[in-house]
DNA sequence: AGAATCTGTGAAAACGCTTGCATAATCTAT
DNA sequence: ATAGATTATGCAAGCGTTTTCACAGATTCT
């Protein structure tokens, strides 16, 4: 069997209480004893059993991750894996493990959350979501279970969350385009149920109107999904309604690199090339065309990192820790691949 | 506090042993008692504490995932997240949790493995690797700790692993190109330290020679990395050495979609368009150009699924379970995006 | 010198569960 | 009717820690 605290105690000629205290560097133990015990620990290659610790401490030192996303999105958008690395990093630095469960739909999702909680397997949960009226949030709140959310939820009251300033992001990218001389800028949005979609649209609107232009509904596409297909369709509609020439936008602000990809694809097919396109997520795809391309990097790794920080600070009972973080976005101008 | 087995026992008027036995549906308990206990369980909303269970059972019902990969690769290649979903799925179906730790380098990686094991936090480990002489494998083997590997390791003896038949994959794709009439086919390989690179090259070689052609070193690029840059460079070298015309290959077999992307990019820049390019991983990027493009789908989700199966079957002490799985690959011909 | 305080350590309970063994009650076979 | 087997349940030890409380011995104070 594995060496336990008992073996160490015996080897060092002390009681297990003393060993336990040496482990936590309790000041009540004399330096002499500490040395002796530590020597025994080393010689026996003793490592405390995490499970037994958890039981005694009523804390698992583990957090759970809940990914409620369609496989497609997960695969096409590096956002998730990036955020996960950020979470893992902060967790490791603070001696926490992270459990992860992938689910196809919201109901299963909730089940996982319930299982995590009721079986007391985790001390807290990080939720990937920006869905309106998320069931998990509701449940977790009701159960008074600690969690943090990546993506600003509907009701922020009493919940820990981290997000970009999506308003600011599209404002900035639109403003950037205007500063480059663009006067007619189209917008392609995401699913209307997500806060992120609304915010991005609002940011675009503001930038447009601040500069004295008006929103043209013919070149504004709302409530799509973050897909290539949608981007492609939008450009086709644009071609239909605007014909070419004056009415055609000189730039397009999209809400996702995949949408942008669809737009670029459609452009290439229609043999249009002088339209600036922007996206979100700074996906590798961005460099795929030979066009200049601007993408908003949402710093997913940081989003994850701070989501973990929010949660762990709360778990550790930190007083007056912040309740949310806004992670700045970066405009990344990818040159055509050299 | 939370309701424990004691509360249930009291409510049902039985001992905790009985409750425990009802939980595991022990046949020695009478149906009558079972009903009574189950009623109490429901009423009290009792859920067994996973930690306490683990301690008593000396099993955590948790497996650990170790990702030793550069962030870049992780982000650009959906392979990992796909495999992870497969793992999560099989684990969930069998009542296991999965822990995940992301690391930048091999040493930290080993540390995580050591921590997982020495603290007894997991029952087994899944390793993502195809690195020659992996330190983790060595360590895990030495410690007699259960693990499975995604990617065929150097020494397969006594280790559980799952992989594609990479030889077969490039053989197939090369053969496919030849059947389409291509006679001069270039090859772009991956890092020579990985088995996967060697296998893919061998498959290509075999297909070429089986059809009576010979390998031309001038159009064969080995020991690169799985990157866009490398693909780009290769095509440039091709242009330099082959000039255009007869000596130029009519098709290029690459070892990764990213390499293929680089090739396509360079082609576009040099205004070449009639060269068939193939890749690996069936990345969304594949559809990025408007060219026809063939990618080998490695079925990453299945790789993960079976890696989990191998491990869990072993953990559960399944007799004569297989020691490895070969997951078939699929040739995916992506039409130019409509 | 005796009381009060401080230091360093150990005994034992607690965390919430599983399981081997014991036992009481019922049933079967003689 | 009685020994033996069977069925249904409980007792208590054990899993490997942490932590409260107690206490012995050393130190300080009056």
List keywords for this structure.
17% strand, 12 strands, Rossmann fold, six-stranded mixed β-sheet, homodimer, DNA-binding, 434 Repressor (Amino-terminal Domain), 3 domains, six-stranded parallel β-sheet, 338 residues, 13 helices, alpha/beta
Explain what this protein looks like in three dimensions.
Two copies of one chain form a homodimer. Chain A has 338 residues and is an alpha/beta fold. The first copy, chain A, has three domains: 5-48, Orthogonal Bundle (434 Repressor (Amino-terminal Domain)), CATH 1.10.260.40; 62-164 and 300-327, Rossmann fold, CATH 3.40.50.2300; 166-298, Rossmann fold. The first copy, chain A, is 46% helix and 17% strand. Chain A has 13 helices and twelve strands. Chain A has helices at 5-12, 16-23, 31-44, 50-57, 71-76, 79-93, 106-118, 135-142, 166-179, 195-210, 228-242, 257-270, 300-315; strands spanning 62-68, 97-103, 124-128, 147-150, 160-164, 185-188, 220-221, 251-254, 276-280, 293-297, 324-327, 330-334. In chain A, the strands form two sheets. The first copy, chain A, has a six-stranded parallel β-sheet, sandwiched between helices. Chain A has a six-stranded mixed β-sheet with strand order 7-6-8-9-10-12, sandwiched between helices. In chain A, strand 3, helix 8 and strand 4 (147-150) form a beta-alpha-beta unit. In chain A, helix 2 (16-23) crosses helix 3 and helix 11 crosses helix 12. The longest helix of chain A has 16 residues, at 195-210. Chain A is elongated, with a radius of gyration of 26 Å. The interface between A and B is large, with 54 and 53 residues. The structure holds a DNA duplex (30 and 30 nucleotides).
């Amino acid at each position: 069997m594995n060496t336990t605290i008992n073996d160490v105690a015996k080897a060092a000629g002390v009681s297990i209480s003393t060993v336990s205290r040496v482990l936590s560097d309790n000041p009540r133990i004399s330096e002499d004893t500490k040395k002796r015990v530590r020597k025994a620990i080393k010689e026996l290659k003793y490592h405390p059993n995490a499970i037994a610790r958890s039981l005694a401490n009523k804390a698992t030192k583990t957090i759970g991750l809940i990914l409620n996303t369609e496989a497609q999105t997960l695969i096409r958008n590096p956002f998730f894996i990036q955020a996960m690395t950020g979470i893992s990093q902060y967790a490791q630095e603070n001696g926490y493990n992270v459990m992860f469960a992938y689910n196809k739909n919201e109901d299963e999702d909730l089940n996982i959350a319930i299982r995590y909680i009721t079986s007391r397997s985790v001390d807290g949960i990080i939720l990937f979501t920006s869905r309106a009226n998320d069931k998990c949030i509701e449940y977790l709140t009701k159960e008074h279970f600690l969690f943090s959310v990546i993506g600003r939820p509907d009701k922020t009251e009493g919940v820990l969350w981290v997000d970009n300033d999506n308003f600011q992001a599209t404002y900035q990218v639109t403003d950037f385009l205007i500063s480059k001389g663009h006067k007619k800028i189209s917008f392609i949005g995401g699913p209307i149920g997500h806060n992120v979609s609304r915010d991005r649209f609002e940011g675009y609107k503001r930038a447009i109107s601040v500069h004295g232009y008006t929103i043209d509904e013919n070149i504004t596409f709302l409530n799509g999904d973050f897909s290539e297909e949608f981007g492609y369709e939008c450009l086709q509609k644009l071609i239909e309604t605007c014909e070419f020439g004056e009415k055609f936008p000189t730039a397009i602000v999209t809400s996702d690199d995949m949408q942008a990809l669809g737009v670029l694809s459609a452009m290439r097919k229609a043999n249009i090339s002088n339209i600036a396109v922007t996206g979100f997520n700074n996906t590798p795809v961005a460099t795929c065309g030979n066009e200049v391309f601007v993408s908003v990097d949402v710093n997913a790794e940081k989003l994850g990192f701070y989501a973990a920080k929010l949660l762990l600070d709360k778990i550790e009972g930190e007083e007056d820790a912040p309740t949310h973080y806004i992670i700045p976005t970066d405009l990344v101008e990818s040159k055509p691949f050299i």
